[in-house]
Amino acid sequence: xxxARKAYSKAFYAxxxxxxxxxxxxxxxxxxxxxxxxxxxxxxxxxxGQRFLQEARMRLGWSQxxxxxxxxxxxxxxxxxxxxxxxxxxxxxRDKLLEVLGxxx
Length: 105
Prior knowledge:
By secondary structure, the chain is an all-alpha fold. Helix content is about 75%, strand content about 0%. The protein has helices at about 5-25, 30-50, 50-60, 65-70, 75-85, 95-100. The longest helix is centred in the first third of the chain and has 24 residues, at about 5-25. The protein is elongated, with a radius of gyration of 19 Å.
């Protein structure tokens, strides 16, 4: 993106910031429901695609807490990943998790 385009975008956002805030406030419930529905609908798809995480962990004989400690996240995060509640693509420590489990990424 060119510097002129960046400057325009920044000025546009600054000038319209109150309108954006008012829109988000007025539609917060709708936006939250959309986001929640989207992930709920896709959770099964993510869970099927991420089943290998639990299989690899079980093959090693590790608990979720042990994997979480090695990766540096909470046990709840490992649960969310294994159940598909959190897509692996959005997980910031994805490479570390795959390395700990010995799975090729």
